Amino acid sequence: MTAPLLEVADLNAWYGKSHILHGVTFRIEANEIVSLLGRNGVGRSTTIKAVMGDVRPRGSIRFKGEEVAGLKPHETARRGLGYVPETRDIFPGLTVRQNLILGEKPGRANRRWTMADMFRIFPRLEERADTPGGVLSGGEQKMLAICRTLMGDPDLIMVDEPTEGLSPMMVEHMGRLLEEIARRGVAILLVEQKLTIALKISHRLYVMGHGRIVWEGAPAALETATDVRREWLEV
Amino acid sequence: MLEILAFSTLNGVLYGMLLFMLASGLTLVFSMMGVLNFAHVSFYMLGAYFGFEIERRLGFWPGFVIAPIAVGAIGAAVERFGLRRLHRLGHVSELLFTFGLAFVIEQLVEMIWGKLPVDYRVPPSLDFVAFRLFDTTYPAYKVFMLATAVAMFAALFVVLKRTRVGLVIQAALTHPEMVAMLGHDVPRVFMLVFGAGAALAGLAGAIAGPALVTQPTMAALLGPILFVVIVVGGLGSLAGAFVASLLIGLVQTFAVAMNGSLAALFGPVAPPGLGDLWQVTVAQLAPILPYLLLVVILIVRPTGLMGTRET
């Protein structure tokens, strides 16, 4: 058995003096779609920020067998970890095409994705290729943010709240995009508050509460585990 | 009259472009790092002194090339070993650091070159009359300064708009964290921008030194005007800095050329209580005009001409 693609063990993190993560442990195998669920404020986003190095972590983060805890965000990214923040962070003054170009990493050839792929998967981006990113709709910006990260050819992409604020049609589109990403051999960590697409496309799920992992299992198991859903997920 | 108009415009544009060589670096660094670099004009002064020192030994042209590079290297080192370490302590520490650095540079310059102006001269190869208009001559050196400033402006534009590094810089202006998450080394980009900004200031100093006066107070003399430029243009806006540089360049040169006063306009007898004010000429007011403009802009449009954030 080979080592997992990403293996996080006993991860602790702080914002100033407040202790946010209390020993988070999880793993993601190659080609796997994994969801990290939980209510607002339980530390889901902090977990991926700590993995990226944007928040200073304590604990072990092994990616492709190498310890990456303590690396700077750009160093983590260059090792093949991609992150799409909840806030999308499109560069508003740059065109859609320029946003995508900036996704490419210096000195790293992209084996999986070309700009043509992005335009084929999401034709709307091609129509708007020369428009400033800032004028795109929320849903389009979300797609652009994901495509931009893919241009850096990550082996694992961590997407924070991909469906938040999207119309039902866009949610379905997003689900298809994520499955297409997985088909190309990119592992996905989905960070979600709602179960909408998480139950449909994930292989495994983790539920977080109070800065820890409180449940782990398959989508079918979560559908029947009403106590877990009531205690940790439903509002 | 036409003569004054033509030459004032030429000189105003020249002065404005010179201001822009300084303002562009200052405003880029400000929008990326949130630091108003008080030592920026000191880099300009260093450029002039380095240019002078190299001119004495090797001639003007080697100085024209080497001085900006040397100043740029100093700027990059200041970012790498000074500002970057202070960054986590917040903007006040960084501001105080650049403030102190400005004093240190001024004192060092006085220690090495003395308090009196140095003899930094226009090179013989550029010491001739470029053209004659209405019986007034215009020196070739000024044309050379203008050409250098325009070339620098074009180069800056091409780098920012047409290269990958330029895209990274533009993106890092608003979202530095995201740029890092995409695998770009943002601190290194900061260092390069700081160094390039210092090099531009150094270049401005190296070419302005022979035309203006190279002395230890040259930084302190230009500093306030520079801050007026970037506040009037809008903090962090490159286009705004360009417009404001030209505006202030033109306002100042035109004001200096005008001898009009209230007395000239309405007759020599002043209303009671306005005796002295009645005689003041526009030329005498010229030095305070930029600051008046600053006050007016801050009242009418606090974000500056093209800025988006409150100053």
Please give a structural write-up.
- The complex is a heterodimer of chains A (235) and B (311).
- Chain A has 235 residues and is α/β, with parallel strands linked by helices.
- Chain A is 35% helix and 26% strand.
- Chain A has a domain at 6-88 and 155-233: 3-Layer(aba) Sandwich (Rossmann fold), CATH 3.40.50.
- Chain A contains ten helices and ten strands.
- In chain A, the strands form two sheets. A six-stranded mixed beta sheet of chain A has the order 6-7-8-3-9-10, sandwiched between helices. Chain A has a four-stranded antiparallel beta sheet with strand order 2-1-4-5.
- In chain A, α3 packs parallel to α6 (138-150).
- The radius of gyration of chain A is 17 Å and the shape is globular.
- Helices cover 74% and strands 3% of the residues of chain B.
- Chain B has helices spanning 2-33, 40-58, 60-86, 91-113, 140-162, 164-174, 176-181, 186-211, 218-233, 238-257, 262-266, 275-279, 282-285, 289-300; strands at residues 129-133, 136-139.
